[in-house]
Each structure stands twice: as C-alpha cells, then as structure tokens.
Amino acid sequence: AEKFIRYMPDLFPCDAPKKYGIHFVKPTGKLSDDPRKNLHEGYTVTAWSLQVLYFVGCKEVYIVGMDHNFHQTGKPNEKHHMTTDDPNHFDPNYFKNKDWDNADLEQNNNSYRRIKRWYEDDGRKIFDATEGGKCDIFDKVDWKVAMYQRDDGDAAQQQEEQAEEGQQEDEDKEDGEEEKAEEE
To answer: 145 falls in which pLDDT band (50, 70, 90)?
Structure first.
C-alpha cells in the first residue's frame, strides 16, 4: 500500500512518480518525523496525519471526527467489496462499489500508543475532541474547549462574571460621581 501527499515541490521534493499532482510515499513500520522520506502507516490515515502534523511542528493536536467504531463483519484487514452505502464514513458513497479492508482497531491502538509516546517524549500532546468517539488512547477534551478554549459552562460563568464586573464598575462610577458632587 502507498500513502500520498499532494504535490508541493518546495515542501515535499520527493523523487516518487507524480500522478495527478500527488506524490506516493512508501509506508514503513517506523514512525517518521520527515514524511518526504517515509511514513508509518499505522493501519489508519489518522496515524499518517499525526506524523505530518509532527513534521510541520504542531505542539498540540486536537483530533475531531475519529469515531474509532466500525460496522463490519469478518476479520481485521479482511477485504470486502462494499455494494451498499458505506456506514463508516462521512459520505455513504465513500467505499460504495469499491473494495475495502476491514478496520484493525487493535493495530490502530498499537500505533496510537506509539505515536502518543513519541509526541509526549518531545513535549507535545494529542487530544481526542471527538464527541462520542470510542478511542481511549488520547486524553479526551470537549470539542468546544478545543475550538474555543472554553466549554458552555465556562461561557455562562464568564458572562455572569462580566455582568457582575460591569455592575460593580457602574456602582463605582456612581459612587465617584456622588463624592465629586459632595465636594463641590
């Protein structure tokens, strides 16, 4: 299997053959901090993506949309031809009328553990901000916290605190005006 990187000659000057503006990169079993050379496939595109994000210098990564849950029959990595709508991806046509290999969640998890250690050994962090996701490798965080650095409870509390601060400022202003009037 080959993974691909969109053709970006300055960033990825690979010698691999170009096809439709895409470079193909041979996967290996080793984690790679330079995807121009190789990539650890990790049994999932998420593992591949985490290596690219490491390469571009991300210190914190928030994963959104990784359900880590598949509707499938048969053994891990077993090939099937999907003739019906794809229940496992965002688009029902994603693998419809195409071959698809069953997910291998055990191997996914092994790769995620290796990648998590790799990030943490370098002072980096990966968070799982997927609502309802089944992966238990990365620390969970609410997606609203990931996107806005607050959750709904914090937002309500912040609004209440701001209202109290505004009320206090109004009272202080009134007190200052009263003192000024008394002095005159």
So the answer is: confident
Cα–Cα dist 36/6, whole Å = 11
The conformation of residue 102, written as its DSSP 8-state character, comes to P
Tens digits of per-residue pLDDT, 20-62? Answer: 455 556 667 788 888 877 888 888 889 989 998 999 899 999 9
Distance CA 129, CA 170 (A): 40
154-177 pLDDT tens trace: 545 555 666 677 666 667 766 766
In 3-state terms the chain splits into helix, strand, coil percentages (rounded to 5) of: 35, 15, 45
CA gap 31, 35 in Å, rounded: 9
Residue matched to tokens 């790799």: 118
Nearest-angstrom CA–CA distance, 100 and 42: 16
Structural tokens at position 12: 């990825």
Candidates 65, 59, 64, 55; CA nearest to 25 is: 55
Sheet holding 18-19, edge to edge: 3-6, 22-25, 18-19
CA distance 76 to 78: 5
From the DSSP assignment, how many helices (H) and strands (E) are in the chain?
4, 10
**Which one has a higher pLDDT value, 7 or 47?**
47
> Alpha-carbon distance 139 to 126, whole Å?
7
